Amino acid sequence: MKKQILFALMILTLLALGILAGMVVYTALFGGPSITDRQFWINLFWVLTSVITGIIALIALFFAVGLAIQSRRVRAPVVDDADLLPVTIIIPVLNEERVLEACVGSILASNFPMNKLEIIIAYEKPPKCSDSTPQIAQRLAGKYPNVRAIANEGAHVGTKAGACNICLPDAKGNVIGLYDADHVVHPDAIRRASAQFTMDSKLGCIGGKLLVRNMDYNLFTFIIGNEYTVINNFSRFFSEMITGAHLIYGSNVFISKSALDAIGGFDEKSLTEDSDLGMKLINKSYRMIVDYTIESYEQPAVNWHDWWSQRVRWTRGSVDTLKKYMSKSKDEINAKVLQTAFVYSLGTIGLFLTVILMGFVGYLLLMGVVPPYAIVAFGAPFAILFAAESLLQMTLGRGSIADLLMSIFVRPWFIFPYTLVGVYAVVLDLINAPRTWEVNQRIG
Description:
Helix 1 (2-30) crosses helix 12 and helix 11 (304-326) packs across helix 15. The model is unreliable at 32-36 (pLDDT under 50). The chain has 2 domains: 2-70 and 349-430, no CATH class; 77-341, Alpha-Beta Complex (Spore Coat Polysaccharide Biosynthesis Protein SpsA, Chain A), CATH 3.90.550.10. Strands 3-2-1-4-7-6-8-5 form an 8-stranded mixed beta sheet, with helices on both faces. It has 444 residues and is α/β, with parallel strands linked by helices. 55% of the residues lie in helices and 12% in strands.
């Protein structure tokens, strides 16, 4: 109850700040004796709203076009089988009985030499695991010679980072790939990743494109659709363009084994071990790229509870990572770490400012100063980004008109629950709430 009360108070405080700012502006414009032309100021707000919305929309269009171009830029691997670097795929699993076998099957069906591919399933044991995942992992290891099953135990138990770390000492590949168990991997993904490392010996990490499958599972999955795809890929694209680096997302990502060993693997105290790993690589000046032609398809959150819990965990983990590296001395981090931390901190700060802006615009809207269509300014840039992804998928033979319409008219408004996610994550951080590894409900 404590966290819910604190969350409500913080939201009300931020909204109150926005309303207060609106009252100050309204009083300054219409409360003084020297200002009498109310319609002049109303018209001015109309003009300013139109200009700001247009500028933001153009910026969003620029990023949308850039993302689309990179996604269509197919770079066929030019490396022979004999020269491809061996790859170890690590799949950390907890209560994944519904999806694990399909994930492993998609990896084994890859267009990649099987004698250079190793799959390690790192599973949690009971009582942490409450389904048949350990038995499935062991059965798959017995069935396929290049699949191994390792129990996450000892000091590593109970965390996704620990499950990854326990696999590293015995991993045979020069490249380590990470996948969550709900993923279905594109047949060319592993080959493309290995080829990139073969052609560039200085490459430390390569991230692929994450796409959502089963969007038609229920009404909720249809509504959120490509929300995760757009935000995930846009944030990396934006950071890479501004700073030349990006944080890692913990699936469909490939890392040099030597780089992982050099930075000490994953931080098992971090709620989002992938973000922390990205900062470690940036701090050691490893080259990092995103290749949007390396595709993998994951399941969406299937209900509001899963969506909320997952995004709160991500946001809270990102806040932890930013705090960790922003508190280090100049001797411990390089300039690119500071630049990347600053870019990603804009997201969290922006969530707070959005709540304040909601109060500000809401008050001026109530007083008749701001035109009703000013609300479009919140959604227009996101509509462009979502629609661009939907159009891209349609050109690739996926997607639909219904999905495009949802991207234009519905998904942009997820900015509002995202603001609540940001505030709630900070509340949990303030009260030092427990950090746990939880798994979303899976679609069988």
